[in-house]
Amino acid sequence: MSAEKIEYIQWYPGHMAKANREIKEKLKLINVVIEVVDARLPLSSKNPEINQYTWNKQHILLLNKSDLADPEVSLEWIDWFKKNTEIEKVVLFDAFDRRMKTDLVRTIHELNIKEKAQVKCLVCGIPNVGKSTVINSLIGKKKTQIGNKPGVTKGQQWLSTPDHLMLLDTPGILWPKFEDPLVGLHLAWLGSIKDTIYEKENIAADLLKYLLVYYPDELEAIYKIEVVGKNLPEVFDAIAKSRGLLVKGGEYDYARTSVLILNDFKNGRIGRITLERPE
Ligand code: GDP
């Protein structure tokens, strides 16, 4: 599917509209908005509508899954957000890193907030960026349901942490219309939009096209193939061949090869990759 087609897809299920309304009702209680994005696509995974929650609040942007992102590009993004937004703190984060969690708690307590005794934080972001994992890390135990599928975290609840924080856990919310048609494709790469909305083979081909330009060495290493001088269909074939993904009759199985590439990217197996760069 081409990017032009994606432009016309509206992706805003009813439960997200409802969640958005519920957050607005609770906003007056909130001191800090912790917005979670995916460091591999920090702009595409940033819901532009979250700005309506942050007025009059302290705003922390977590570039989560930074362990899966290209470290050099992540630093460029940090600079970009500092220069181009009003966000108080922009932080590279790995929800499984305890040291980063300790630093985050310190950062929150250092913010200019009157009610120090119990800081109320809204944790928000689109599906699958790691909100539940961030929350579990802050509360020190598993509280919310986690899954690598969009929309698994449900409902809204207050959770307290040992560090005097109250966290409002919200479901992943997308926005009604993607202004840039590429955003839909990017969110499909991250698994933030249900795979079934787009055709997997086209999503995988677009991802592979990007990887061939920016991360050819990583592709060669993981799939044990050579990519130099090969075009996209040839690389697709080489991956299918290398992994023995064939259908009856000896043809390459493009459906399974696409799923393989998408899952390898989602789970960080291809390497530390960032799929968009600051302008
Ligand atoms: P949510 O939908 O935003 O609540 O996302 P989840 O917390 O359910 O996380 C989605 C997937 O990303 C899960 O498989 C998590 O284990 C994984 N994940 C979350 N944070 C990180 C991180 O910082 N690094 C890595 N490598 N994986 C993460």
UniProtKB/TrEMBL annotation:
Please give the family membership noted in the entry: Belongs to the TRAFAC class YlqF/YawG GTPase family. MTG1 subfamily.
Q: Does the keyword Zinc apply?
A: no
Q: Which Gene3D superfamilies match?
A: 1.10.1580.10, P-loop containing nucleotide triphosphate hydrolases
Source taxon at top rank: Bacteria
Stretches assigned to the G domain: 121-175
The record's SUPFAM superfamilies line, in alphabetical order, gives: P-loop containing nucleoside triphosphate hydrolases (SSF52540)
Q: What is this protein called?
A: Ribosome biogenesis GTPase A
Please name the InterPro entries in this protein's record.
Answer: GTP-bd, GTP-bd_ortho_bundle_sf, GTP-bd_ribosome_bgen, GTPase_MTG1, P-loop_NTPase
* Swiss-Prot/TrEMBL keywords: Cytoplasm, GTP-binding, Nucleotide-binding
What role does it play? Answer: Required for a late step of 50S ribosomal subunit assembly. Has GTPase activity.
Q: Where in the cell is it found?
A: Cytoplasm
Entries under Pfam families matching the protein: MMR_HSR1 (PF01926)
Chief site of localization:
cytoplasm
